[in-house]
Design goal:
The protein is 28% helix and 25% strand. The protein has 306 residues and is of the alpha/beta class. Helix 7 links the parallel strand 12 and strand 13.
Length: 306
């Protein structure tokens, strides 16, 4: 039977297990994909603790972990068009992606370009697509300056590159240990920690035009003091705080068109997924712990052997 990495109840890592499950069957508007790679994101462990994305109901337990995959179409659901068995695709699974098989809704599934590896494709549907949505939501003109907090993480790495490709100046907040990495992306590095606003003002004496926050809490509050227009304050991490400050969350498009666009950016050399470590499915726990510890650089991907 196919293997999947699940959580059996809400809680900590002790709720996780590698199990065997029946191969799922695609419903209307879905394709069954033989998974080749699955991206690992902070939202994965947060969902295990009971976090529910706005508009999404509770998961049926046991629930497969993971929110982005790349693989090969094995079976089509009723009335599916635009896909055939054998297509190489990537997207957001219906109910988890750390598995040998996953169901993907065709509305947020894209064809993988031949030039894009399965591993890199699996790093795009959550982090890169969130970054793309956020940067375009800010709608800044070329030459403007955007402050990105958490610039060394999966979304931050992608957001920095997309912003630079659009001609924006990026001030990237990250730990001192990620200084060289953030600068390699083309950003001006500002170390995280107390007195953040003062350091940003020193790095950007003409001010910042927008803030794309990926940390939340005190970091988001400090960053907000740098803006005159709270409409240019968005977060992918802390909806409650950003609402109090007059900003808003990243508005996710969740469309195949966005996935096509981020894939094009990779193929054109404007976006590097920066997959820094990979793990086999039987080490999914280690992959998730690497992300849950909060100090990962770039993206972590689970590769599923065939």
């Amino acid at each position: 039977m196919p293997k999947a990495y699940v959580f059996t109840r809400y809680g900590g890592p002790e709720t996780e297990a590698l199990v065997e499950q029946d191969r799922p069957s695609p419903g209307p508007g879905q394709v069954l994909v033989a998974v080749r790679a699955a991206g690992v994101n902070p939202v994965d462990w947060k969902q295990r603790t009971g976090y529910a994305r706005p508009g999404v109901g509770a998961r049926e337990l046991p629930a497969v972990l993971g929110n982005e995959v790349a693989g090969v179409v094995e079976e089509l659901g009723p009335d599916v068009t635009g896909f055939t068995v054998g297509d190489e695709v990537f997207g957001n699974p219906v109910a988890g992606g750390y598995a040998e098989y996953a169901l993907l809704p065709t509305a947020i599934t894209a064809h993988k370009p031949a030039e894009l590896s399965f591993t890199d494709a699996a790093a795009l549907p959550v982090a890169a697509a969130t970054a793309y949505d956020g940067i375009h939501q800010l709608a800044l003109p070329s030459g403007a300056t955007v402050l990105i907090t958490g610039a060394g993480g999966g979304v931050g790495v992608a957001a920095t590159q997309i912003a630079r490709a659009l001609g924006l100046t990026v001030i990237g907040v990250a730990s001192e240990g990620k200084k060289d990495f953030v600068e390699e992306l083309g950003a001006v590095h500002v170390p995280s920690g107390p007195d953040l606003a003062e350091r940003v003002r020193a790095a950007a004496p003409d001010g910042v035009d927008a803030v794309f926050d990926l940390v939340g809490g005190e970091v988001l509050e400090a960053a907000a003091t740098l803006l005159d227009d709270p409409a240019k304050l968005i977060t992918g991490a802390d909806r409650e705080t950003v609402a109090r400050l007059g900003g808003g969350p990243v508005e996710r498009a969740r469309t195949a068109a966005v996935l096509d666009e981020v894939a094009r950016l990779v193929v054109d050399g404007e976006l590097r997924p920066f997959v820094t470590r990979t793990f086999p499915l039987d080490r999914a726990a280690e992959a998730l712990r690497t992300v849950e510890d909060g100090h990962v650089r770039g993206k972590i991907v689970i590769e599923v052997a065939r």
